Amino acid sequence: MKRSRINDIMAAADDMIRQYGFVLPPFAYWTPDTFKARAQDAAHVIDARCGWDITDYGRGRFDDMGLFLFTLRNGLLSDLQGGGGMCYAEKLLISRQDQLSPMHTHIIKAEDIINRGGATLVVKLYGSDDQGGFAEDRGGVVMCDGIARPYAPGEKLRLAPGESVTLRPGDWHAFWGEGGDVLIGEVSTVNDDETDNVFQAPLGRFAQIEEDTDPTHLLVSDYPVWLS
């Protein structure tokens, strides 16, 4: 993805987030130079990979297959493994109309996916085989706003604003906006996007960046290079 496109997506996402009464934390608006100057203060933000995240899954077709994310807070895997401390994470996501977030599951993370506003969020579900792999012929059971809901293989949940689904490891899922763009909340156990996303098809989790202009703000995937 071109850096200029990423900058534009950030600006549009911030506008949409504010439309629904949310405001991102102060570090969201730091310039790259400010981030470098305050890297020591922001050690947890960097280590936990909080911040801006825009992906086309390495396919170069963001409008068709992509996702905007901002990690608001996140614990460390060591907390989760130790059974105490900051064992949770929170994100805001934007799924554009008909923009696919492709079929995947998580090894560790359980997550609530919440329609915070906008159009309908469609979540397509499959279960796992005995080894945890994608199973085209298996369904399962999820919780929708605390109510158990069985799902058939390939069933599509349609979540209106305010509705949510709880997904556990082994619940294979893809999602997109139907009828318009959707602001999504995600509340989960500790989030590790580098190792805990398992895609049905071979995909990259992060975009490859073409530096055609300076970044407005850093992506979480920029931290190792820009803040080293």
UniProtKB/TrEMBL annotation:
Its EC number is 5.3.1.15. It catalyses: D-lyxose = D-xylulose. It holds the Pfam family Lyx_isomer. The keyword Coiled coil does not apply. Its cofactor is Mn(2+). One of its GO terms (molecular function) is isomerase activity. InterPro entries: D-lyxose_isomer (IPR010864), EcSI_cupin (IPR047581), RmlC-like_jellyroll (IPR014710). Keywords: Carbohydrate metabolism, Isomerase, Manganese, Metal-binding. It is an enzyme of class 5 (isomerase). CDD domains: cupin_EcSI. Belongs to the D-lyxose ketol-isomerase family. This is D-lyxose ketol-isomerase. It comes from Loktanella gaetbuli.
